[in-house]
UniProtKB/TrEMBL annotation:
Source taxonomy: Bacteria, Bacillati, Bacillota, Clostridia, Eubacteriales
Its job: Specifically catalyzes the decarboxylation of meso-diaminopimelate (meso-DAP) to L-lysine.
Coiled coil, from the record: none
Protein name (record): Diaminopimelate decarboxylase
InterPro entries (alphabetical): Ala_racemase/Decarboxylase_C, DAP_deCOOHase_LysA, De-COase2_N, Orn/DAP/Arg_de-COase, PLP-binding_barrel
Top-level taxonomic group: Bacteria
Gene Ontology molecular function, alphabetical: diaminopimelate decarboxylase activity; pyridoxal phosphate binding
Positions annotated to bind substrate: 289, 326, 330, 358, 387
UniProt keywords, alphabetically: Amino-acid biosynthesis, Decarboxylase, Lyase, Lysine biosynthesis, Pyridoxal phosphate
Cofactors: pyridoxal 5'-phosphate
The protein's assembly and partners: Homodimer.
Enzyme class of the recorded protein, top EC level: lyase
Presence of the UniProt keyword Endoplasmic reticulum in the record: no
Pfam families on file: Orn_Arg_deC_N
Length: 429
């Protein structure tokens, strides 16, 4: 977890002195390692794309999306998975080939669908019968043929937080596997002159530490593929199995390697398609958190320290809920260190409190820190690369932090810090 680690009592992150970054760019500060991201891409290629033919990876950009991130993904040969018109706009503006874009979302607006059709994105992942009809009409108006996948709910409950579990039948995402619903959707798609039905997609959930949910979902998906071949004489060309591969947030976490998931997934697909007399489809995956989660840290400056004898010690920082809502939303847990006192024994339990006027703005309830913790120390929260910057808000009118990217021990700004003027730039009086 302490990549490149400790020199003279200071935390280094991929070659950069964390305290010096905080002093130079201010806090709160998001720090992202380009080296880590590219290493993940290398692992992904070796474990999946180069190892198994007829495969492609799409980065789930909702985890962390900037123009620079798109540039890196393009250079690494990855596709981009987007879930809104805004994410689609960023990907296009960054120069991503529209054919390398997978457009998701449970409630794509008419404007977003028109945008996707206009750009000729590679795949639109249709989430419902309602969306299918709207898309068909829009494609007809534009005189275009759109390639689609259907997102199905594979009826799988996985061992993760309910807010990031998406494969169960009772879900806002996807088309249920009930015969009458999925068959109607596929019949409409295959009889339309403006829809090209290519395959199916599922996503069982996120931050998973075992592959059992993926394997059960594959069995259900291929059972559907068999029924479609038998009942409608339709052979599925593409199968998108989503992502969800877990990462290390705490020192006690023991996430599995990517190959643990990929090898089991590919073997299960190969086995089940063969046993059911089906052709092996093209396989897509969509890692997001796995690509960027451990590539990021967030830096804060320690402020007020409040000791309540016999209760707890609150250590307040200059950020919190606005730059990381995951603790309030998911009760997410993080590991953190005093970046400028790494040689000091961690012998005091404190609660890390955010600065918002909100009782629930607690970043870490019980964190071991040196007894010498004091105002001005730099707190480094680890594994914040995914769903921190992308979920940030201006609650309490707090400006969003800057994003610094580091490569080969050198840093550069890729997103500037918001100013107070930015907070009112869209106001009209």
């Amino acid at each position: 977890m302490l990549q490149n680690s400790i020199k003279e009592g200071n935390l280094y992150f991929y070659g950069c002195n964390v305290q010096e970054l905080a002093q130079k760019y201010g806090t709160p500060l998001y720090v992202i390692s380009e080296d880590c991201i590219r290493n993940k891409c290398k692992e992904l290629k070796e474990s999946f794309i180069e190892k198994y033919p007829n495969t492609k990876a799409f980065y789930a950009s909702k985890a962390f999306l900037t123009l620079e991130m798109c540039k890196i993904m393009k250079e690494e040969g990855m596709g981009i998975d987007v879930v809104s018109g805004g994410e689609l706009f960023v990907a296009i503006r960054a120069g991503i080939d529209p054919k390398d874009i997978m457009f998701h979302g449970n409630n794509k607006t008419t404007a977003e669908l028109k945008m996707a059709i206009e750009y000729s994105v590679g795949r639109i992942v249709v989430d419902s019968l309602d969306e299918l009809q709207v898309l068909d009409d829009l494609a007809n108006e534009a005189n275009k043929v759109v390639d689609i996948l259907f997102r199905i709910t594979p009826n799988i409950d996985c061992n993760t937080h309910k807010y990031i579990s998406t494969g169960q039948k009772d879900s806002k995402f996807g088309i249920p596997l009930d015969d009458e619903i999925i068959k109607e959707a596929i019949t409409i798609a295959t009889t339309s002159t403006n829809i090209n039905f290519r395959g199916i997609h599922f996503h069982v959930g996120s931050q998973l530490f075992d592959n059992s949910s993926h394997l059960k979902a594959i069995e259900n998906a291929i059972r559907l593929m068999k029924k479609l071949k038998n009942d409608l004489d339709i052979e599925i060309e593409e199968l998108n199995v989503g992502g969800g591969f877990g990462i290390k947030y705490l020192e006690s976490d023991k996430p599995k390697s990517l190959s643990y998931f990929i090898d089991a997934i590919m073997e299960a697909i190969k086995k089940n398609t063969y046993e059911n007399g089906l052709k092996m489809p093209k396989i897509f995956i969509e890692p997001g958190r796995w690509m960027v989660g451990e590539a990021g840290i967030t830096l804060y400056t320690v402020g007020t320290i409040k000791d309540i004898p016999g209760v707890r010690t609150y250590v307040s920082i200059d950020g919190g809920l606005p730059d990381n809502p995951r603790t309030a939303l998911y009760t997410a847990k993080y590991q953190a260190y005093l970046a400028n006192k790494m040689d000091n024994e961690r012998n005091k339990t404190v609660t890390i409190a955010g600065k918002c006027c909100e009782s629930g703005d607690i970043l870490i309830w019980d964190l071991m820190v040196p007894h010498s913790i004091e105002r001005g120390d730099i707190l480094s929260v680890m594994s914040t690369g995914a769903y921190n910057y992308s979920m940030a808000s201006n609650y309490n009118k707090i400006p969003k932090p800057a994003v610094v990217m580091i490569k080969d021990g050198q840093e550069r700004i890729i997103v500037r810090r918001e100013s107070y003027e930015d907070l009112i730039s869209m106001d009209v009086i």
